[in-house]
Amino acid sequence: MNKPGFRTDRVMRLYLIALQFLTIIPLPFDTRCQKDDLGRSTALFPLVGLTIGALLAGLNWLLAPWLARPLCDALLVTALAAVTGGLHLDGLADVCDGLAARGGRERFLAVMKDSQVGAIGAVGLVLGLLLKWQALVALPIDFKWQALLLFPALARFGQVLMMTRARHARQDGLGIIFVQGTSTSGLAFSLCTTATASFFLLGADGIIVLTTVCLLTAAGRLFFQHRLGGITGDTLGCMNELNEILALTGISIATQLTFS
What does the domain layout of the chain look like in residue ranges? Predict the structure, then answer.
Protein backbone atom coordinates (compact mmCIF):
# COMPACT_ATOMS: atom_id res chain seq x y z
CA MET A 1 0.00 0.00 0.00
CA ASN A 2 2.84 2.39 0.71
CA LYS A 3 4.79 1.65 -2.42
CA PRO A 4 2.73 3.73 -4.91
CA GLY A 5 2.70 6.70 -2.54
CA PHE A 6 6.43 6.40 -2.07
CA ARG A 7 6.97 6.48 -5.81
CA THR A 8 4.74 9.53 -6.10
CA ASP A 9 6.71 11.33 -3.40
CA ARG A 10 9.97 10.42 -5.10
CA VAL A 11 8.80 11.70 -8.49
CA MET A 12 7.63 14.94 -6.90
CA ARG A 13 10.98 15.38 -5.15
CA LEU A 14 12.88 14.79 -8.40
CA TYR A 15 10.56 17.23 -10.17
CA LEU A 16 11.32 19.91 -7.59
CA ILE A 17 15.05 19.26 -7.94
CA ALA A 18 14.76 19.69 -11.72
CA LEU A 19 12.66 22.82 -11.21
CA GLN A 20 15.29 24.34 -8.94
CA PHE A 21 18.04 23.62 -11.45
CA LEU A 22 16.26 24.81 -14.60
CA THR A 23 14.53 27.90 -13.19
CA ILE A 24 14.90 30.57 -10.55
CA ILE A 25 11.39 29.93 -9.20
CA PRO A 26 11.74 30.12 -5.40
CA LEU A 27 10.48 27.24 -3.27
CA PRO A 28 9.26 27.83 0.29
CA PHE A 29 11.15 24.77 1.54
CA ASP A 30 14.43 22.94 1.05
CA THR A 31 14.48 19.90 -1.23
CA ARG A 32 16.59 16.99 -0.04
CA CYS A 33 19.05 16.29 -2.82
CA GLN A 34 21.68 13.59 -3.05
CA LYS A 35 24.29 13.35 -5.78
CA ASP A 36 22.47 10.62 -7.71
CA ASP A 37 19.22 12.59 -7.61
CA LEU A 38 20.60 15.20 -10.02
CA GLY A 39 20.94 12.74 -12.86
CA ARG A 40 17.64 11.02 -12.07
CA SER A 41 15.85 14.37 -12.09
CA THR A 42 16.59 14.79 -15.80
CA ALA A 43 13.68 12.46 -16.56
CA LEU A 44 11.42 15.23 -15.23
CA PHE A 45 12.95 17.99 -17.39
CA PRO A 46 10.03 17.97 -19.87
CA LEU A 47 7.57 18.40 -16.99
CA VAL A 48 9.53 21.45 -15.87
CA GLY A 49 9.38 22.62 -19.48
CA LEU A 50 5.58 22.29 -19.39
CA THR A 51 5.59 24.31 -16.16
CA ILE A 52 7.60 27.07 -17.83
CA GLY A 53 5.26 26.89 -20.82
CA ALA A 54 2.22 27.25 -18.57
CA LEU A 55 3.73 30.40 -17.06
CA LEU A 56 4.31 31.82 -20.55
CA ALA A 57 0.79 30.91 -21.69
CA GLY A 58 -0.66 32.56 -18.59
CA LEU A 59 1.41 35.69 -19.14
CA ASN A 60 0.31 35.81 -22.78
CA TRP A 61 -3.33 35.55 -21.66
CA LEU A 62 -2.81 38.56 -19.41
CA LEU A 63 -0.85 40.72 -21.86
CA ALA A 64 -2.29 39.92 -25.28
CA PRO A 65 -5.54 41.93 -24.91
CA TRP A 66 -3.59 45.09 -24.03
CA LEU A 67 -0.44 45.03 -26.14
CA ALA A 68 0.46 44.78 -29.81
CA ARG A 69 1.52 41.26 -30.81
CA PRO A 70 5.25 42.03 -31.39
CA LEU A 71 5.59 43.76 -28.02
CA CYS A 72 3.72 41.00 -26.21
CA ASP A 73 5.95 38.35 -27.78
CA ALA A 74 9.09 40.32 -26.94
CA LEU A 75 7.97 40.36 -23.31
CA LEU A 76 7.39 36.61 -23.45
CA VAL A 77 10.97 36.07 -24.64
CA THR A 78 12.14 38.33 -21.82
CA ALA A 79 10.06 36.41 -19.29
CA LEU A 80 11.51 33.10 -20.50
CA ALA A 81 15.05 34.39 -20.09
CA ALA A 82 14.18 35.76 -16.64
CA VAL A 83 12.50 32.63 -15.27
CA THR A 84 15.43 30.45 -16.39
CA GLY A 85 18.01 32.92 -15.14
CA GLY A 86 19.58 33.08 -18.61
CA LEU A 87 21.01 29.60 -17.94
CA HIS A 88 20.88 28.36 -21.52
CA LEU A 89 21.57 31.70 -23.18
CA ASP A 90 24.97 31.69 -21.52
CA GLY A 91 25.66 28.32 -23.14
CA LEU A 92 24.68 29.64 -26.56
CA ALA A 93 27.07 32.59 -26.26
CA ASP A 94 29.95 30.43 -24.96
CA VAL A 95 29.57 27.87 -27.75
CA CYS A 96 29.51 30.62 -30.39
CA ASP A 97 32.74 32.02 -28.94
CA GLY A 98 34.26 28.52 -28.87
CA LEU A 99 33.34 27.86 -32.49
CA ALA A 100 34.92 31.16 -33.52
CA ALA A 101 38.16 30.51 -31.65
CA ARG A 102 41.09 29.13 -33.58
CA GLY A 103 42.62 25.96 -32.26
CA GLY A 104 41.66 22.46 -31.24
CA ARG A 105 39.65 20.86 -28.49
CA GLU A 106 41.50 22.40 -25.55
CA ARG A 107 41.22 25.90 -26.99
CA PHE A 108 37.47 25.41 -27.58
CA LEU A 109 36.96 24.24 -23.99
CA ALA A 110 39.07 27.06 -22.55
CA VAL A 111 37.11 29.72 -24.44
CA MET A 112 33.79 28.29 -23.26
CA LYS A 113 35.01 28.28 -19.67
CA ASP A 114 35.92 31.98 -19.84
CA SER A 115 33.26 34.00 -18.02
CA GLN A 116 33.56 36.90 -20.47
CA VAL A 117 31.39 36.96 -23.59
CA GLY A 118 33.26 37.69 -26.81
CA ALA A 119 32.06 39.52 -29.90
CA ILE A 120 30.91 36.38 -31.71
CA GLY A 121 29.15 35.16 -28.58
CA ALA A 122 27.30 38.46 -28.29
CA VAL A 123 26.26 38.27 -31.95
CA GLY A 124 25.06 34.70 -31.49
CA LEU A 125 23.11 35.71 -28.39
CA VAL A 126 21.38 38.60 -30.16
CA LEU A 127 20.57 36.51 -33.22
CA GLY A 128 19.22 33.70 -31.07
CA LEU A 129 16.88 36.04 -29.18
CA LEU A 130 15.76 37.72 -32.41
CA LEU A 131 15.02 34.38 -34.05
CA LYS A 132 13.04 33.21 -31.03
CA TRP A 133 11.07 36.45 -30.96
CA GLN A 134 10.25 36.28 -34.67
CA ALA A 135 9.35 32.60 -34.40
CA LEU A 136 6.85 33.56 -31.69
CA VAL A 137 5.44 36.38 -33.81
CA ALA A 138 5.01 33.98 -36.74
CA LEU A 139 2.90 31.52 -34.72
CA PRO A 140 -0.73 31.29 -35.90
CA ILE A 141 -2.84 32.91 -33.20
CA ASP A 142 -5.16 29.88 -33.01
CA PHE A 143 -2.27 27.68 -31.88
CA LYS A 144 -0.30 30.14 -29.82
CA TRP A 145 -1.18 28.89 -26.35
CA GLN A 146 -0.47 25.29 -27.36
CA ALA A 147 2.91 26.31 -28.77
CA LEU A 148 3.79 28.34 -25.67
CA LEU A 149 2.95 25.38 -23.46
CA LEU A 150 4.85 22.84 -25.57
CA PHE A 151 8.04 24.37 -26.94
CA PRO A 152 9.94 24.62 -23.60
CA ALA A 153 9.14 20.94 -22.94
CA LEU A 154 10.41 19.91 -26.39
CA ALA A 155 13.67 21.77 -25.87
CA ARG A 156 14.22 20.26 -22.42
CA PHE A 157 13.53 16.78 -23.72
CA GLY A 158 16.34 17.53 -26.16
CA GLN A 159 18.64 18.03 -23.17
CA VAL A 160 17.70 14.61 -21.79
CA LEU A 161 18.30 12.99 -25.18
CA MET A 162 21.66 14.69 -25.51
CA MET A 163 22.83 13.71 -22.03
CA THR A 164 21.75 10.08 -21.85
CA ARG A 165 24.71 7.71 -22.26
CA ALA A 166 26.83 10.58 -23.60
CA ARG A 167 30.52 11.19 -22.99
CA HIS A 168 31.48 14.28 -21.05
CA ALA A 169 34.17 16.56 -22.41
CA ARG A 170 35.43 17.58 -18.95
CA GLN A 171 36.19 15.56 -15.86
CA ASP A 172 34.80 18.20 -13.51
CA GLY A 173 31.79 20.45 -13.28
CA LEU A 174 28.12 19.97 -12.53
CA GLY A 175 27.33 18.68 -16.01
CA ILE A 176 29.21 15.43 -15.51
CA ILE A 177 27.07 14.64 -12.44
CA PHE A 178 23.92 14.97 -14.53
CA VAL A 179 25.32 12.89 -17.39
CA GLN A 180 26.48 10.08 -15.11
CA GLY A 181 23.08 9.90 -13.44
CA THR A 182 21.02 9.59 -16.62
CA SER A 183 19.52 6.27 -17.70
CA THR A 184 17.64 4.76 -20.62
CA SER A 185 14.59 4.29 -18.38
CA GLY A 186 14.67 7.99 -17.53
CA LEU A 187 14.96 8.82 -21.23
CA ALA A 188 12.00 6.56 -21.99
CA PHE A 189 9.88 8.26 -19.32
CA SER A 190 10.93 11.67 -20.64
CA LEU A 191 10.06 10.66 -24.22
CA CYS A 192 6.64 9.32 -23.21
CA THR A 193 5.87 12.54 -21.35
CA THR A 194 6.94 14.75 -24.25
CA ALA A 195 5.25 12.65 -26.95
CA THR A 196 1.98 12.56 -25.00
CA ALA A 197 2.02 16.33 -24.51
CA SER A 198 2.94 16.88 -28.17
CA PHE A 199 0.10 14.73 -29.47
CA PHE A 200 -2.45 16.05 -26.98
CA LEU A 201 -1.69 19.69 -27.81
CA LEU A 202 -0.99 19.56 -31.56
CA GLY A 203 -1.83 16.06 -32.78
CA ALA A 204 0.34 14.67 -35.57
CA ASP A 205 1.98 18.08 -36.03
CA GLY A 206 3.31 17.84 -32.49
CA ILE A 207 4.89 14.46 -33.17
CA ILE A 208 6.48 15.81 -36.36
CA VAL A 209 8.02 18.72 -34.46
CA LEU A 210 9.22 16.37 -31.72
CA THR A 211 10.93 14.27 -34.40
CA THR A 212 12.75 17.31 -35.80
CA VAL A 213 13.95 18.20 -32.29
CA CYS A 214 15.29 14.66 -31.90
CA LEU A 215 17.13 14.90 -35.23
CA LEU A 216 18.73 18.26 -34.44
CA THR A 217 19.72 17.04 -30.97
CA ALA A 218 21.29 13.87 -32.38
CA ALA A 219 23.23 15.93 -34.91
CA GLY A 220 24.42 18.34 -32.20
CA ARG A 221 25.48 15.48 -29.94
CA LEU A 222 27.48 13.84 -32.73
CA PHE A 223 29.14 17.16 -33.60
CA PHE A 224 30.20 18.00 -30.05
CA GLN A 225 31.36 14.48 -29.28
CA HIS A 226 33.49 14.58 -32.44
CA ARG A 227 34.81 18.11 -31.84
CA LEU A 228 35.22 18.04 -28.07
CA GLY A 229 35.20 14.36 -27.21
CA GLY A 230 31.91 14.79 -25.35
CA ILE A 231 29.37 17.31 -24.17
CA THR A 232 29.46 20.07 -21.54
CA GLY A 233 26.90 22.19 -19.73
CA ASP A 234 27.46 24.94 -22.29
CA THR A 235 26.72 22.64 -25.23
CA LEU A 236 23.52 21.51 -23.49
CA GLY A 237 22.46 25.12 -23.05
CA CYS A 238 23.27 25.91 -26.66
CA MET A 239 21.22 22.98 -27.95
CA ASN A 240 18.32 23.98 -25.70
CA GLU A 241 18.25 27.45 -27.29
CA LEU A 242 18.47 26.03 -30.81
CA ASN A 243 15.72 23.53 -30.05
CA GLU A 244 13.44 26.26 -28.70
CA ILE A 245 13.86 28.18 -31.95
CA LEU A 246 13.38 25.01 -34.01
CA ALA A 247 10.29 23.96 -32.05
CA LEU A 248 8.59 27.34 -32.45
CA THR A 249 9.48 27.50 -36.14
CA GLY A 250 8.38 23.92 -36.73
CA ILE A 251 5.05 24.45 -34.98
CA SER A 252 4.44 27.56 -37.08
CA ILE A 253 5.23 25.77 -40.34
CA ALA A 254 3.38 22.55 -39.50
CA THR A 255 0.16 24.24 -38.36
CA GLN A 256 0.09 26.62 -41.32
CA LEU A 257 0.58 23.75 -43.80
CA THR A 258 -2.05 21.61 -42.12
CA PHE A 259 -4.74 24.30 -41.98
CA SER A 260 -3.89 26.34 -45.08
Answer: 34-258
